[in-house]
# Entry
Amino acid sequence: MKFFLSILLACFLFTSCKDDKDPKDFDLPDDEEEEVEEDITEVAPDYPYGMNHKLPILHTDGRWLCNESGDHINLHGFWQTYTPWFNGGAWGENNWGGKDYQKCVDYNKRIIDGVLASGIKVDFMRMHLDPYWFIENGRGDAPVSEYFSIALMKEYFEKVYLPIIKHCNDNGLYVVLRPYPCGEEKTNDLKYGDGFFKILEYMWKYFTTHKDICNNSDIMFEIANEPVSINASEDGGDRSKAITRYMQHFIDLIRKNCDNIIWVPGLTWQQEYNSFVKYPLKGENLGFAVHCYPGWYGSDAEKSTGENGGNMGEGVGGGYESFQSGWNNSIAAAAELHPIMITEMDWASEKYQKTWGKSFTGLAGGNGFGANFKYIMDKCGNVSYITFTAPNDLALFKTKSKESTVNFWNDPEACPWQIYHWYEEYAQGRVQPLSAESIAIGSKSEKISIVKGASRELIVNAINNGAVFPLQSDFEFESADPSIVRVDGSRIVGVAEGETKITAKALGAETEIAVIVEEFNPFPFEKFNPNVWEKGSFDKTTGTLITGQWGFGGWEYSPGIDITGYSRIVCELGEDSDMSCSPSFRIFDGGGYWADDVEAKFIDKKATIEISEKMTKTKGDKFDATNVTIIGIWTSGGKEIVIRNIYFE
# Structure
């Protein structure tokens, strides 16, 4: 849930009341601490994994979420939270007030039943443990540790959350438990050992020793919600090391008691995961809980959410190429370690005032968020996800989508219509339909451009009843003039300047698009990015680069460029370059900055990489010279190096 909504919730429900207690010194009263310890002692026997389960037992195996047979699966779901504000004030009439827990339970069970009856094929729910039931009245503006109550948490977990968990499991839904938003002072910032940290400890100790939760494979854990940053003073200022240490603490705490699947959040509102590539997590049954909204990772947005940051992609759009590149830079390397679950995602036009993300579906390979999202997730292959559309709105889908006028539920450019059809295909074991009313190459324009020597992925979209299905297979392309544009599987390559047509065939339908090949200019200083990894600077006039610590700057190509027509690539540094920062020249062939690469040292301020069919990356894998996505320079940071010349021979 977004940070400012949490503030509104607190302000709406409570009046401010503070005392002199320092949240950094937070400790529960002695009697409550003793009570928790007694509970842990009483309910921590060695339960077998899967205890109390009603659904097929799930586990993780490397990058995959698997069932008992070892089949790779992805889940598709929705969410719920249990406060009057979110269940009433945000989208409709308030349905109860005070601590009337039975009305809360009855209402939300009806909503779950409504979602299931709507025809939307969901198989899990993200359950938000928001503060409403666990806090003392009248403390809404104080730090969370000043009004959190273990006694209330235990009481209302039993009265509110557990009955709904069981209702979900009884109706075929896995549940992901998610504590409320991060941060001691409502800044979403983390600090090892502070008041919020201790609250998480108490919560996870309680949940993981609960007889109905411990080792129940129908219930999974998302450690925390939307950390933004972390205090890294105890980790030498290395925030990557700090977040791994923080999350590892809770993984270890949970694993002392149970083996339930754990979904681990990253920094920057759950957008940043290369920290866990740099410092891998230890343990079994792990995955990453990621958030993805329009405008994030370089995706298209009608209006930014205001939470883009760092390497996640600024601004509100760049089409498919920008979105794919942003995903590669931030998530792809982590997705090779563990499965991914997108625990927040939605989109629709701002005019509907129904979604956090403001964008449109579009076509994969062109502009828009929704279709590109589906294509990238399906291509990644190990991504489960939810729609963050309000559950009471999802429950209305069956009736609202049949109205004759265009509305939020039946507009193909909003998420409910697409989600309904996508989830239906997933439920049948497919990511795409078996037939199509029509197909479209990923652009609404009649022409696309590509530079000579570059390659570009073309995506075919199958369209059925307004639902867009980006195809992963069952298509073919043909070039009218291979001397201008060559077809290489799903990619086209600009061979020579000129214009020709590409024809696509798929699922019994056919379409074509014009392709213009333009002059090749791979190294304009205007497009140099000094922040590919860590924050740096670049003077476009002098070619002077200063990277952040252990940083990298360079050119990013999306789509990738084909360099097989050249013998070598050369980078020359100016005489004023400070070589004490140990610069190295590097090129990548996909997967983002954290993927493996080809590297060359500078000798007398000159680095050369030979290009051939036999070239390999640092770990020995074959390098794909037809799809070069990044070219640039790594340094230890803080020193000036001057790029005098960079060129192909």
Summary: The chain is about 25% helix and 25% strand. Confidence is low (pLDDT under 50) at residues 3-43, 89-93, 309-315. The CA atoms of residues 380 and 568 lie 31 Å apart. The radius of gyration is 26 Å.
